[in-house]
Amino acid sequence: MNAGVPQTFEGVPVEFSPFHPHVADARGFWWNKRIVVGPTFMKLDPRTQASVLMHEVRHCKGYHVEQRVASLVLLGLPVVLLPLPIIIALLAFGAMWFLVSKLGEGHELDADAFAAEQGYGVELLTWIRKQGPLEMPFYPDFETRCKRLEAKIKERDDATAQS
Q1: With a cut of 50, which residues of the chain have pLDDT below it?
Q2: What is the full DSSP assignment across 61-96?
């Protein structure tokens, strides 16, 4: 927990993530709701922080995420009116996209690990953090990438210290 971030706000758990690219956002479904805040949140004055948290509390207590998911499901319902071969092709495309995306994410993490193993992890991590989150297909999410690279740096440092 980060100093200055409440553990809960209006009954909703609040988490701090040093990698969170936004001020705050509501996450989770039904009983697993929480608000995640980032470093930008810490720069706000207390009343502005409270206003942002109150906004996110409404997303949680108003079941906004659930309503958006239900709306997307309804949006997809016309697909059932398509002929079966087209539905199969669309599902196959979606599955392949998912698999290729995971493969690409793995490649990025592998390349990061290689740089860290070669002694360039700190510099790469610094550069990645400076660039900020990269919202692109085939890239791992920012927090995962940073945590994995930090772990590889620590692993190499520990191995070097034992030698």
Answers
A1: 1
A2: HTTHHHHHHHHHHHHHGGGGGS-HHHHHHHHHHHHH
